[in-house]
Amino acid sequence: MCEDLPSSTPAAPVARWRPVEQRIVLQPVDEITLTTLVDNVTDISTVDQGPAKRPPPLGGPMVPSRVGLEGWGSDALVAEHGFSALVVVRYGATIRRLLFDAGVSPTGMVENMRRLEVDPKEVDTVVLSHGHFDHVTGLDGFMSAVGGVAGLPLVVHPDLWLRRRIAFEGREPVEIPTPSRRALEGGGFTIVEDARPSLLLDDRVLITGEVPRVTGFEPGFPPQQAWREGAWGPDTQVADDQALVVNLRGRGLVLLTGCGHAGIVNITRWARHLTGLEQVCGVVGGFHLNGPLFAGAIPRVVGALSELRPEVVLPAHCTGFAAQLALATALPDAFVQNTVGTQLNLVGSG
Question: Is the model's pLDDT at 59 over the cut of 90?
Answer without folding.
Answer: no
